[in-house]
């Protein structure tokens, strides 16, 4: 039995809020409303991003290092949603 879209969105939301690094919890919690507008392929990309460790994610979002090509677009989307 496969997961429904609603269940997937809730699961990804929980994974976004329970990262282990408070900064990433806050950043990704602010991004979770966008998940509902994403295609299944975009959700796949986001889920893949969540598999990365918090220190790398933070460095990519903060511009301290360049993200791998496969995560670049999603990192840009997350950064675009951050307050200036």
TrEMBL record:
Q: Which GO BP annotation is one of this protein's?
A: tricarboxylic acid cycle
Keywords attached to this Swiss-Prot or TrEMBL record, sorted alphabetically, are:
Chaperone
Query: What InterPro entries does the entry give?
Result: SDH, SDH_sf
Query: Which Pfam families does the annotation name?
Result: Sdh5
Family classification: Belongs to the SdhE FAD assembly factor family.
What name has this protein been given in UniProt? FAD assembly factor SdhE
- Organism expressing this protein natively: Pelagovum pacificum
